[in-house]
Specification:
The chain is mainly alpha-helical and 267 residues long. It has 11 helices and no strands. Helix content is 79%, strand content 0%.
Protein backbone atom coordinates (compact mmCIF):
# COMPACT_ATOMS: atom_id res chain seq x y z
CA UNK A 1 0.00 0.00 0.00
CA UNK A 2 2.82 2.39 0.88
CA UNK A 3 4.50 1.75 -2.49
CA UNK A 4 1.21 2.37 -4.30
CA UNK A 5 0.77 5.68 -2.45
CA UNK A 6 4.29 6.70 -3.41
CA UNK A 7 3.62 5.90 -7.06
CA UNK A 8 0.37 7.87 -6.95
CA UNK A 9 2.15 10.81 -5.33
CA UNK A 10 4.92 10.74 -7.94
CA UNK A 11 2.32 10.52 -10.72
CA UNK A 12 0.51 13.60 -9.39
CA UNK A 13 3.80 15.47 -9.07
CA UNK A 14 4.75 14.56 -12.65
CA UNK A 15 1.32 15.65 -13.88
CA UNK A 16 1.69 18.97 -12.04
CA UNK A 17 5.13 19.60 -13.57
CA UNK A 18 3.83 18.83 -17.07
CA UNK A 19 0.72 20.98 -16.53
CA UNK A 20 2.73 24.03 -15.45
CA UNK A 21 5.75 23.75 -17.74
CA UNK A 22 4.26 22.42 -20.99
CA UNK A 23 2.75 25.85 -21.93
CA UNK A 24 6.17 27.45 -21.39
CA UNK A 25 7.84 24.86 -23.64
CA UNK A 26 5.06 25.46 -26.19
CA UNK A 27 5.70 29.22 -26.22
CA UNK A 28 9.47 28.77 -26.61
CA UNK A 29 9.08 26.25 -29.47
CA UNK A 30 6.63 28.38 -31.43
CA UNK A 31 8.81 31.47 -31.05
CA UNK A 32 11.09 29.74 -33.60
CA UNK A 33 8.26 28.73 -35.95
CA UNK A 34 8.79 29.76 -39.58
CA UNK A 35 5.07 30.34 -40.21
CA UNK A 36 2.39 32.52 -38.59
CA UNK A 37 0.59 29.47 -37.27
CA UNK A 38 0.27 29.23 -33.51
CA UNK A 39 -0.77 25.58 -33.62
CA UNK A 40 1.51 23.84 -36.16
CA UNK A 41 5.28 23.93 -36.50
CA UNK A 42 6.31 24.53 -40.13
CA UNK A 43 10.06 24.95 -39.70
CA UNK A 44 12.83 26.68 -37.74
CA UNK A 45 13.32 30.44 -38.07
CA UNK A 46 14.44 33.55 -36.16
CA UNK A 47 12.10 35.82 -38.13
CA UNK A 48 9.84 36.64 -35.15
CA UNK A 49 12.85 37.71 -33.11
CA UNK A 50 13.99 39.91 -36.00
CA UNK A 51 10.52 41.47 -36.28
CA UNK A 52 10.44 41.96 -32.52
CA UNK A 53 13.75 43.85 -32.53
CA UNK A 54 12.65 45.94 -35.52
CA UNK A 55 9.29 46.81 -33.94
CA UNK A 56 9.59 50.28 -32.38
CA UNK A 57 6.69 49.71 -29.96
CA UNK A 58 8.16 46.48 -28.65
CA UNK A 59 11.59 48.03 -28.21
CA UNK A 60 10.03 51.00 -26.46
CA UNK A 61 8.17 48.68 -24.08
CA UNK A 62 11.40 46.71 -23.47
CA UNK A 63 13.27 49.95 -22.68
CA UNK A 64 10.47 51.04 -20.33
CA UNK A 65 10.46 47.66 -18.59
CA UNK A 66 14.22 47.65 -18.01
CA UNK A 67 14.27 51.32 -16.93
CA UNK A 68 11.44 50.88 -14.43
CA UNK A 69 12.86 47.59 -13.11
CA UNK A 70 16.38 49.00 -12.61
CA UNK A 71 15.19 52.20 -10.88
CA UNK A 72 12.68 50.32 -8.72
CA UNK A 73 15.31 47.74 -7.77
CA UNK A 74 17.96 50.30 -6.79
CA UNK A 75 15.59 52.52 -4.79
CA UNK A 76 13.68 49.66 -3.12
CA UNK A 77 16.93 47.86 -2.22
CA UNK A 78 18.39 50.96 -0.55
CA UNK A 79 15.11 51.87 1.17
CA UNK A 80 14.38 48.29 2.22
CA UNK A 81 17.89 47.74 3.61
CA UNK A 82 17.83 50.98 5.60
CA UNK A 83 14.33 50.16 6.88
CA UNK A 84 15.43 46.67 7.95
CA UNK A 85 18.48 48.06 9.76
CA UNK A 86 16.33 50.72 11.43
CA UNK A 87 13.76 48.14 12.54
CA UNK A 88 16.50 46.02 14.12
CA UNK A 89 17.36 48.96 16.39
CA UNK A 90 13.73 49.85 17.19
CA UNK A 91 11.52 48.91 20.11
CA UNK A 92 9.59 45.65 19.87
CA UNK A 93 6.19 47.34 19.58
CA UNK A 94 7.42 49.51 16.69
CA UNK A 95 9.13 46.54 15.03
CA UNK A 96 5.99 44.38 15.24
CA UNK A 97 3.73 47.18 13.96
CA UNK A 98 5.95 48.04 10.98
CA UNK A 99 6.48 44.36 10.18
CA UNK A 100 2.73 43.79 10.02
CA UNK A 101 2.28 46.86 7.79
CA UNK A 102 5.14 45.61 5.60
CA UNK A 103 3.35 42.27 5.12
CA UNK A 104 0.14 43.87 3.78
CA UNK A 105 1.33 44.37 0.17
CA UNK A 106 2.73 40.83 0.11
CA UNK A 107 -0.43 39.21 1.51
CA UNK A 108 -2.90 41.35 -0.45
CA UNK A 109 -3.98 40.29 -3.95
CA UNK A 110 -2.20 42.42 -6.56
CA UNK A 111 -5.50 43.76 -7.85
CA UNK A 112 -6.21 45.32 -4.43
CA UNK A 113 -2.80 46.99 -4.35
CA UNK A 114 -3.21 48.13 -7.96
CA UNK A 115 -6.61 49.74 -7.36
CA UNK A 116 -5.36 51.35 -4.15
CA UNK A 117 -2.36 52.92 -5.90
CA UNK A 118 -4.54 54.06 -8.81
CA UNK A 119 -7.01 55.76 -6.45
CA UNK A 120 -4.11 57.33 -4.55
CA UNK A 121 -2.72 58.93 -7.72
CA UNK A 122 -6.19 60.04 -8.83
CA UNK A 123 -6.96 61.55 -5.40
CA UNK A 124 -3.80 63.64 -5.40
CA UNK A 125 -4.23 64.44 -9.12
CA UNK A 126 -0.90 62.90 -10.12
CA UNK A 127 -0.83 62.38 -13.87
CA UNK A 128 -0.33 58.71 -14.57
CA UNK A 129 2.57 57.64 -16.75
CA UNK A 130 6.18 56.54 -16.38
CA UNK A 131 6.66 58.37 -13.07
CA UNK A 132 3.64 56.76 -11.38
CA UNK A 133 4.68 53.34 -12.68
CA UNK A 134 8.12 53.76 -11.11
CA UNK A 135 6.61 54.89 -7.79
CA UNK A 136 4.20 51.96 -7.78
CA UNK A 137 6.96 49.45 -8.49
CA UNK A 138 9.12 50.89 -5.71
CA UNK A 139 6.13 50.63 -3.33
CA UNK A 140 5.45 46.93 -3.95
CA UNK A 141 9.13 45.87 -4.27
CA UNK A 142 10.37 47.40 -1.00
CA UNK A 143 8.50 44.95 1.32
CA UNK A 144 10.19 42.00 -0.41
CA UNK A 145 13.62 43.56 0.18
CA UNK A 146 12.85 44.12 3.87
CA UNK A 147 11.62 40.53 4.15
CA UNK A 148 14.86 39.28 2.56
CA UNK A 149 17.26 41.42 4.61
CA UNK A 150 15.66 41.04 8.06
CA UNK A 151 16.74 37.39 8.67
CA UNK A 152 20.36 38.30 7.92
CA UNK A 153 20.23 41.21 10.37
CA UNK A 154 18.70 38.98 13.07
CA UNK A 155 21.64 36.58 12.70
CA UNK A 156 24.18 39.36 13.44
CA UNK A 157 25.63 40.22 16.81
CA UNK A 158 23.50 43.18 18.01
CA UNK A 159 26.62 44.83 19.46
CA UNK A 160 28.55 44.76 16.17
CA UNK A 161 27.73 48.34 15.18
CA UNK A 162 28.42 49.63 18.71
CA UNK A 163 31.80 47.88 18.72
CA UNK A 164 32.72 49.51 15.40
CA UNK A 165 31.76 52.97 16.70
CA UNK A 166 33.74 52.37 19.89
CA UNK A 167 36.77 51.80 17.65
CA UNK A 168 36.29 55.20 16.01
CA UNK A 169 33.89 54.52 13.15
CA UNK A 170 31.08 56.94 12.45
CA UNK A 171 27.50 55.55 12.26
CA UNK A 172 27.67 55.74 8.45
CA UNK A 173 31.01 53.90 8.37
CA UNK A 174 29.71 51.26 10.77
CA UNK A 175 26.71 50.70 8.50
CA UNK A 176 28.57 50.67 5.17
CA UNK A 177 31.82 48.96 6.18
CA UNK A 178 30.64 46.58 8.91
CA UNK A 179 26.89 45.84 8.70
CA UNK A 180 26.34 45.88 4.92
CA UNK A 181 29.12 43.34 4.08
CA UNK A 182 27.66 40.94 6.66
CA UNK A 183 24.12 41.16 5.25
CA UNK A 184 25.12 41.43 1.57
CA UNK A 185 23.66 37.99 0.61
CA UNK A 186 20.24 39.13 1.89
CA UNK A 187 20.57 42.46 0.08
CA UNK A 188 21.54 40.73 -3.16
CA UNK A 189 18.66 38.26 -2.89
CA UNK A 190 16.22 41.08 -2.14
CA UNK A 191 17.47 43.08 -5.14
CA UNK A 192 17.06 40.11 -7.47
CA UNK A 193 13.56 39.42 -6.18
CA UNK A 194 12.65 43.10 -6.59
CA UNK A 195 13.97 43.13 -10.16
CA UNK A 196 12.05 39.95 -11.01
CA UNK A 197 8.82 41.26 -9.47
CA UNK A 198 9.13 44.57 -11.29
CA UNK A 199 10.17 43.12 -14.64
CA UNK A 200 7.20 40.80 -15.09
CA UNK A 201 4.50 42.80 -13.27
CA UNK A 202 1.30 43.37 -15.21
CA UNK A 203 -1.67 44.08 -12.93
CA UNK A 204 -0.22 47.00 -10.96
CA UNK A 205 1.51 48.44 -14.04
CA UNK A 206 -1.76 48.30 -16.03
CA UNK A 207 -3.67 50.31 -13.41
CA UNK A 208 -1.06 52.99 -12.69
CA UNK A 209 0.21 53.70 -16.21
CA UNK A 210 -1.02 56.28 -18.68
CA UNK A 211 -0.11 58.47 -21.66
CA UNK A 212 0.67 55.39 -23.78
CA UNK A 213 3.46 54.15 -21.48
CA UNK A 214 3.64 50.34 -21.68
CA UNK A 215 5.99 47.77 -20.25
CA UNK A 216 6.47 44.30 -21.76
CA UNK A 217 3.66 42.74 -19.76
CA UNK A 218 1.14 45.31 -20.98
CA UNK A 219 2.48 44.98 -24.53
CA UNK A 220 2.03 41.18 -24.42
CA UNK A 221 -1.52 41.67 -23.14
CA UNK A 222 -2.42 44.02 -25.99
CA UNK A 223 -0.78 41.67 -28.53
CA UNK A 224 -2.82 38.71 -27.27
CA UNK A 225 -5.99 40.31 -28.65
CA UNK A 226 -4.82 39.61 -32.20
CA UNK A 227 -2.83 36.81 -33.81
CA UNK A 228 0.80 37.90 -33.70
CA UNK A 229 3.54 35.24 -33.44
CA UNK A 230 5.95 37.89 -32.15
CA UNK A 231 4.21 37.49 -28.81
CA UNK A 232 5.99 34.13 -28.46
CA UNK A 233 9.38 35.79 -29.07
CA UNK A 234 8.65 38.48 -26.45
CA UNK A 235 7.42 35.88 -23.96
CA UNK A 236 10.50 33.71 -24.54
CA UNK A 237 12.72 36.73 -23.87
CA UNK A 238 10.94 37.34 -20.55
CA UNK A 239 11.10 33.63 -19.63
CA UNK A 240 14.85 33.52 -20.36
CA UNK A 241 15.59 36.61 -18.26
CA UNK A 242 13.47 35.48 -15.31
CA UNK A 243 15.06 32.01 -15.45
CA UNK A 244 18.56 33.51 -15.35
CA UNK A 245 17.62 35.70 -12.38
CA UNK A 246 16.05 32.78 -10.49
CA UNK A 247 19.19 30.70 -11.07
CA UNK A 248 21.30 33.56 -9.71
CA UNK A 249 19.04 33.85 -6.64
CA UNK A 250 19.57 30.18 -5.82
CA UNK A 251 23.18 29.68 -6.93
CA UNK A 252 24.95 32.90 -5.87
CA UNK A 253 24.20 32.57 -2.11
CA UNK A 254 25.50 28.97 -2.19
CA UNK A 255 28.72 30.04 -3.95
CA UNK A 256 29.16 32.97 -1.53
CA UNK A 257 28.69 30.66 1.46
CA UNK A 258 31.26 28.18 0.14
CA UNK A 259 33.77 30.96 -0.52
CA UNK A 260 33.23 32.26 2.99
CA UNK A 261 33.81 28.79 4.46
CA UNK A 262 36.94 28.42 2.34
CA UNK A 263 38.34 31.72 3.64
CA UNK A 264 37.55 30.76 7.23
CA UNK A 265 39.26 27.39 6.82
CA UNK A 266 42.30 29.07 5.22
CA UNK A 267 42.61 31.43 8.19
Amino acid sequence: MKKNKRYIGKAFMLFGIIFFYLPIVYVVLFSFNSSKSLTALKGFSFQWYEKMFHDSQMMSSLYTTILVAVIATVVSTIAGTLAAVGLSRSRKIVKDLVSQINDFPIMNPEIVTAIGLMLFFITFKVERGLFTMILAHIAFCTPYVILSVMPKIRSLDPNLADAAMDLGATPAQALIQVIVPQISPGIFSGALIAFTMSFDDFIISYFVTGRGVKNLSIMVYTMSKRVNPSINAVSTLVIALITIILILINVVPIIAERLKKGRNEAV
